[in-house]
Design brief:
The protein is of the alpha+beta class and 64 residues long. The chain is built from one helix and four strands. The radius of gyration is 12 Å and the shape is globular.
Amino acid sequence: MADLTGARWRKSTRSSSNGGACVEVADNLPGVVAVRDSKDPTGPALTFTPTAWRTFLTHPTPPP
């Protein structure tokens, strides 16, 4: 499990403005990008390597 002490959380640019249903991202830690639900800041966070996170962000979304 990654140590997220010192993580600086920000609202993801991919989050909508749906009244608080936001994803927060911390990408200031070496070697890890963390993602959490803004409604549960003390809850669990998903962690990714920076490479995996970039792949996730650039991968096209399939049509419905």
